[in-house]
Amino acid sequence: FAGIYFIVDGIILIRSTRVMPASLLSRVREAMSQGDVAAALEVCKNEPCPMANILTAGFTHVEEGFDVIQEAIGIAADFESEQMMQRIQYLTLVAALSPMLGLLGTVQGMIYAFFNLAIMGSGAAQTGTLALNIGQALYTTAGGLTITIPVMSVYHILRNKANKIILRMQA
């Protein structure tokens, strides 16, 4: 359930339309084409999003020169990038814990199998119990891998998508 939650959260979070709304960009371009930095800054304040935060960092330093503006934008972009990446980073935690939980089930199944073998001895009736315990061990391992594989796949897709958006924002 945690994997599904973080996948949905990442899909909602990592969208160009959410991070860099077209209306924000067009309104800022319009204000800047008129040379009105104050209007562009007001547009950014009225439409909060990661791109608006980056632009605001640049616009607030407009009188200090290009190097200061570029540095402020870089810092703001790094901050926004880190915030996006932290949210999807939880997917790696889910992906790392899932096989561990599967392994825990495997160990538990093997403990039961050996315990039952020790208590009951050997024989045809005990073979069924042993197979049942080993089956439990394999199901939990498969369950852990079933969670890990898609979660890691989605994580890499979202990470790459976030990196593309971040590069577009910085550009």
What layout of secondary structure does this protein have?
Blueprint: H1 2-13, H2 16-19, H3 22-33, H4 37-46, H5 50-59, H6 66-120, H7 124-170
Helix pairs in contact: 1-6, 1-7, 3-4, 4-5, 5-6, 6-7
Keywords:
7 helices, rod-shaped, 171 residues, mainly alpha
Concise structural overview:
This protein has 171 residues and is mainly alpha-helical.
Notes on the protein architecture:
The structure is a single chain. This protein has helices spanning 2-13, 16-19, 22-33, 37-46, 50-59, 66-120, 124-170. The chain is rod-shaped and about 90 Å long. The protein is an all-alpha fold. Helix 1 (2-13) runs antiparallel to helix 6.
Radius of gyration: 26 Å
Note the gap between the termini. Answer: 37 Å
Order of helices and strands: HHHHHHH
Helix/strand-derived category reads mainly alpha
* Unreliable sequence segments: none
Number of strands: 0
